[in-house]
Structure formats: structure tokens, C-alpha cells
Design a protein that fits this description.
The protein has 143 residues and is α+β, with helices and mostly antiparallel strands. The protein has a single domain, classed as Gamma-glutamyl cyclotransferase-like (Hypothetical upf0131 protein ytfp, Roll). Helices cover 27% and strands 43% of the residues. It contains five helices and six strands. A hairpin with a 5-residue loop joins strand 2 and strand 3. The longest helix has 11 residues.
Length: 143
């Protein structure tokens, strides 16, 4: 069964999502409420936590195939758990999607600083692509 993905960090970049998932699904801007996206110490990527009143802007990717979910879960690794959420799509409709929440036990790695996507694009994306170990996990999997 195909499900939607709400991406709030590095996977907002279509080229990164395509490399990880093995395909490029339809994408649209979306918002997740009652969560917060924070900097992870010494990392280029963020962590997501529940936070009443919070608001996270991201990308909604529609109809992710089962094989892509296996790749995405492997890429995210043990630091994250996939959960179901409801996001507001750009047209105002509410859409069910899955996203990745930082697991308990890893929350101590978070800094109380909002992760900035534009700063990532300007200063961190190249290093992330070059250095992130999650790519090695999905590179051996078939597209």
C-alpha cells in the first residue's frame, strides 16, 4: 500500500529524496503542527519532536511505494521512528502522511535551536551528501 511522506529536513531536497527512495514522487509544500524541528548537535540534519503549538514547514511527497519505504527506513536508521501524522497541504486540505520522529534516548542530541532549511542549502547540503553514512545503507538496495 502506498503512503505519503512528510519530509522536514534533508529529504526536502528532491535530489536527496530521489537518491534515497529510488524514485521521485509528486511533491507539494505542507505544514505539520504541534511539532518542532531542532538542530542535532554536530549534524547537518534535524530531529523532529512533539511540541504543542509548534509549526514545521516541509514537503509532502505523495504515494511512496513499499520498496521506497524500506529504503527510507534504512536511511533514517535507529535514531528515528516512523509515525503517522496529519499535515496541511498547500491547498489547505488535511492529508495523512508518515514522518520520522526522533526516538526517545536520542533526544539528548537535540539543541534548542530551530533547524534552518535555507542555511542547510547554503552551508550544509554538500557536506551532508558527501559524509552522511545513511547513503551506504541504501546504496546496496535495488531501485
Amino acid at each position: 500500500m502506498k503512503r505519503n511522506l512528510f519530509a522536514y529536513g534533508t529529504l526536502m531536497c528532491e535530489d536527496i529524496l530521489t537518491r534515497v527512495a529510488g524514485s521521485t514522487p509528486a511533491a507539494a509544500a505542507s505544514v505539520l503542527t504541534d511539532f518542532r524541528r531542532l538542530v542535532i548537535r554536530d549534524a547537518q540534519y534535524p530531529g523532529l519532536i512533539r511540541y504543542p503549538g509548534g509549526r514545521v514547514e516541509g514537503v509532502l511527497y505523495r504515494d511512496i511505494a513499499a520498496a521506497a519505504w524500506l529504503r527510507l527506513d534504512s536511511f533514517e536508521g535507529e535514531m528515528y521512528e516512523r509515525i503517522a501524522v496529519t499535515v496541511e497541504a498547500g491547498d489547505g486540505t488535511l492529508v495523512e502522511a508518515d514522518t520520522y520522529l526522533i526516538r526517545p534516548g536520542f533526544e539528548q542530541l537535540l539543541e534548542l535551536v530551530e533547524w534552518d532549511f535555507e542555511a542547510f542549502l547554503a552551508n550544509g547540503k554538500e557536506a551532508f551528501i558527501r559524509e552522511y553514512t545513511g547513503y551506504a545503507v541504501v546504496s546496496g538496495q535495488a531501485n
